[in-house]
Amino acid sequence: MKSYTEIKTLTGDEEFLAYTSQPTSEPKAAIIVIQEIFGVNEGIRIKCDAWAKLGYLAIAPDLFWRIRPGIELDADVEPELQEAFGLFGKFDQEAGIRDIEATIREARRMVGGRKVGAVGYCLGGRLAFMTAARTDIDASVGYYGVGIDGLLGEAHAIAHPHAQHIAGNDGFVPKDAQARMHAGLDDHPKVTLWDYEGVDHGFAATMGNRRVEDAAQLADSRTEAFFADHLA
Fold first, then answer.
1. CA atoms of 129 and 143, how far apart (whole Å)
2. How far is CA 92 from the centre of its chain?
3. Which pTM value belongs to this model?
4. What one-character DSSP code corresponds to residue 166?
5. Edge to edge, what strands does the sheet with 30-34 contain?
């Protein structure tokens, strides 16, 4: 079942919407799908529906609601890509983490106290790392998270399993940043890093020009196994 859930902010004085996809049977856990800079668009909704087919409650909060609620953009349309970069510049990441924390609370309530994971892409990959360090999420995965080498000082706070998929030719995460990620995280007992040589940022997009089929399928299979181990 596909619908939208109203989620109260942590202060309880405002609400925002989250696309929600329910499995056909009792959910074994919940997974929060954290958007790219393109909003909760068709690609993110399809990812939610795929998790629901695997037996999870999947929920994607609209993290840009304070800027422009309901925004949906396409990375393959140049004006929309530029608009997305503009939204990224306006986005308050601290507020975004608070909204993810509110979503964790609501998701945990919706699944009767079962575990809650998070998976994010691009901006969402960065937020997945921040969520791992700053909330009680049970497990989390990021795809081509940006700027994580600048967040390594928070790694000590990661108490639950976390993984990152790293695109070897990522135009937004250069080789030196990838090396710093490995240097800072390879020995962390709760963190796993997976590298994908020869692919660029966005390789696991649901659709469009960025997708690299073999790498996307491998990454997604690893994420499925990761959540099966740590959530279900």
1. 10
2. 16
3. 0.97
4. E
5. 2-8, 15-21, 57-61, 30-34, 116-121, 139-143, 162-167, 191-196
Q: What is the pLDDT of residues 79-105, one digit of tens each?
A: 999 999 999 999 999 999 999 999 999
pLDDT tens per residue across span 16-40: 999 999 999 999 999 999 999 999 9
109, pLDDT greater than 90: yes
For the residues of 178-189, what is the DSSP string, one character each? HHHHHHHHTT-T
Q: How far apart are CA 13 and CA 174, in angstroms?
A: 41
Structure tokens at 24: 């056909």
Residues listed for the chain: 232
| Contact status, residue 118 vs residue 140, Cβ threshold 8 Å | yes
Task: Specify the residue for token string 């840009």.
Answer: 64
Which contacts of 219-222 are long-range, i.e. CB under 8 A and separated by 24 or more positions? Answer: 219/143, 219/165, 219/194, 222/163, 222/165, 222/194
- Measured CA to CA, the distance from residue 48 to residue 50 in angstroms comes to 5
- List 62, 138, 149, 170, catalytic entry: 170
Catalytic residue among 201, 220, 229, 230: 201
Per the structure block, which two tokens stand in for 28?
Answer: 């074994």
**Whether residue 201 lies in the annotated active site:** yes
Query: Quick one: which H or E segment has residue 21?
Result: strand 15-21
Cα-Cα-Cα-Cα dihedral sign, residues 19, 101, 194, 145? positive
Angular region, 16: left φ>0, alpha ψ -120 to 50, beta rest: beta
Q: Is 99 a catalytic residue?
A: no
